[in-house]
Amino acid sequence: MLEIQNLHAKVEDKEILKGINLTVNPGQIHAIMGPNGSGKSTLANIIAGKDGYEVTAGDILFEGESILEMAPDERAAVGIFLAFQYPVEIPGVSNTYFLRSAVNAIRRAREEKEMDSLSFMNMIKEKLNLLHLDNDLLKRSVNEGFSGGEKKRNEIFQMAVLEPKLAVLDETDSGLDIDALRVVADGVNALRDQDRGFLVITHYQRLLNYIVPDFVHILMDGKIVKSGGKELALQLEEKGYGWIEEEVLAKA
Amino acid sequence: MSSPTAEKTMMFGLEATHDRFPSLIALRTKALEIANGASFPTRKDEEWRYTPLNLLRDSAWTPGNHAGVTAADVASAALGDFDQIILVFVNGAFSAELSSPLENEAIEILPLSSAISDGKAPRLGELAAVEESFSPVAAHFGVLKKQAMHQFAALNTASFTDGAFLRLKKNQVVDRPIQLLFLSQGANVGNCARVYVVAEEGSKGTIMETYASVGKTTQSFSNAVVEVFVEPNAFLEHVKLLKENDRATHIGLTEVHQSADCTYKNYCINFGGLTTRNDLNVNVNGQNAHTRLDGVVCLDKEQHVDNHTRLDHAQPNCESYEVYKHLLDDSATAVFNGKIFVHQDAQKTDAKQTNKAILLSNKATMNTKPQLEIFADDVKCTHGATVGALESSMEFYLQSRGIPAQEARAILVYAFAAEVIELIGHEGIRTELSKMLFTKLGVKQ
Fold first, then answer.
1. Which end of chain B is more exposed for a tag (fewer CB within 10 A), N or C?
2. By C-alpha distance, which of B225, B229, B275 is closest to B253?
């Protein structure tokens, strides 16, 4: 469903991604791990279509079509979702209004009928129950005054409502204590199914104890230097990133 | 320098109205001297620096007539739909047939002309009461006169023909808001409205002024003076809505006197007009008083709004909050000048002032000047001003959820301005103003 082909990208004049190749198929969870500054968040932002990055070579295909020329909302409409590392606070816009605007904008883009308020509220309540979240969340302004854990839970809630085909989780575990981490992971697991792909970006292995990946990729200096199964994450946890650097250097 | 200025102060048929209220002759003669003696403000005057009044100066103004406005005009001009009492003024004249019945147990409502003129009060049996309430009117006019009032206020005093007199009675709660609807209709009409409000001890209520244009109104000029007295323990919400057409000039002075333990909240909503100048002066003369001064300015094309607020903390232990937000598109310009004076006796004052502007176009201009002057030593006072574009991180966040860029921007500008509207206590007014803002910005509801 997602094919990243030889992706090179720079920010201002600095080359950050130096040839990434990665394929995510429906139903798979891929984890991308790497040290700070390796390009993890850049990759997530480029997939979602954030401004400020220049793709200098390569392509990103989603269901066979290049998405590089698409606006962020068009990417959301085809089924791509980014859970932000730092969710943005939007004072004055309630979660309900925000989500309803999003759901109906996506429906319009897909030439589907918009949802009326009753069916929308029913759907929202169902998702709240699925994730064991409180009704209060709906009335509050988007992320305003939320704790770190609440913000990340709200990201997962939005994901549940928008039902993307591909979800990219950018360091969703950062800043969370173990309880909050578990809530977020339970949410993701509840949304796992055979049609949905996940790209889980993380610095630490601990998230992967709860969201068990099918594949783990190590990103260093803008390239995927090693790929493997879930056991690769455990090795990293044990030995740190140093041994991979050495391995890469040895090959070079 | 007599001729141009003197001519301009004659523009509302001053001779005709001069003798209308015999009891005010001395006051009005004095006011006329002030108006005539002052030179027309230009951009060289610091207080008028960013507000051009050429159109006002160079146009001829007539009082206009009072006919032809229908209930349908009122319905579309007034802020509705909620249970309220509406007083309608057409080109400065009170229209009883377009207004709600004025009888109310909790509040005395009169056209100002009736409150002032002997024998002309609508309820002759209560004339004594009217006279009694009139004497403070005269006393308070005197208060205003003592202020170094600007010439437009003097012009108003010299030439107003009517207005409203509202007295929220002691310990009464007035559930229905009172909306004073000032309509301009016809070509080059100019008028002066005068409003006098007393919230007596322990009373609670909401009043609203709405300025609107009717039909094919071309240029118009409304020059309002509103005096508000908030007595001990009273609670008054005061909304001013400007939705005149884009050829209208409005100059308004609101002078507020707060006593001890009272709450006064003013919301200034600028959604229309070509050139608008609002002066809001609040004198906090008692301890433990609460004050809120909030404003929204939402303009486009060539529209201009100048909000001058002045808050005088004269007594200790008071708090005041002030938030003004501006959304400026096209070549719109706005001015915010917020003065807060904390006088020597006003220890333990807690005053916060913020003004923010989002410029939606390269040609829009914001001039902002927060001005705090503090003469007491044990106070908390802060002020801040920001002017900028929409935050791109917010825009991207909404877009990443599927909301197209244009809609995302509309939602964000709405939210920016709505933050002030949501402070309004009266649900009907709050909801209707939110709807107006939605429509103005083209946001889906």
1. C
2. B225
Of A82, A90, A142, which has the smallest distance from its Cβ to B400's Cβ?
A82
Map residue B206 onto helix, strand or coil.
strand
Output the furthest CA–CA distance in chain A (Å, rounded): 62
| Residue length of chain A | 252
The nearest CA of chain B is from the CA of A1 a distance in Å of 19
Beginning with the edge strand found earlier in the chain, give each strand of the sheet holding B290-299 in spatial order.
B93-95, B85-90, B178-184, B204-213, B235-243, B263-270, B290-299, B319-328, B350-359, B380-388
Is B401 within 8 Å of A76 when comparing Cβ atoms?
Answer: yes
Contact criterion met (CB below 8 Å) for B191 and B164? no
Report, in angstroms and rounded to the nearest whole number, the Rg of chain B calculated over CA atoms: 21
For CA atoms B392, B397, B400, B402, give the dihedral sign.
Answer: negative
DSSP B329: -
Q: Above 0.90 for ipTM, yes or no? A: yes
Structure tokens at A51: 């401004």
Token representation of residue B153: 């206020």
Give the contacts of A35 (CB within 8 A, at least 6 positions apart).
Answer: A203, A220, A241
- Give Rg (Cα) of chain A: 18
What is the number of residues in chain B? 445
Residues 32-51 of chain A whose Cβ lies under 8 A from any Cβ of chain B: 48-51
Asked if A105's CB is within 8 angstroms of B404's CB, the reply is yes
Q: What is the DSSP string of A65-98?
A: EE-TTS-HHHHHHHTEEEE-SSPPPEEEEEHHHH
Q: Is B407 on the interface with A (CB under 8 A)?
A: yes
What string of pLDDT tens digits covers the 445 residues of chain B? 333 333 444 444 444 455 677 777 777 777 777 777 777 788 888 888 888 888 888 888 888 887 789 999 999 999 998 999 999 999 999 999 999 999 999 999 999 888 876 443 333 223 233 333 344 444 444 444 444 456 788 788 788 888 998 999 999 999 999 999 999 998 888 888 989 899 999 999 999 999 999 977 689 999 998 989 999 999 999 999 999 999 999 999 998 999 999 999 999 999 999 999 999 999 999 999 999 999 999 999 999 999 999 999 999 999 999 999 999 999 999 999 999 999 999 999 999 999 999 999 999 999 999 999 999 999 999 999 999 988 899 999 999 999 999 999 999 999 999 889 999 999 999 999 999 998 888 765 5
3-class DSSP state for residue A128?
helix
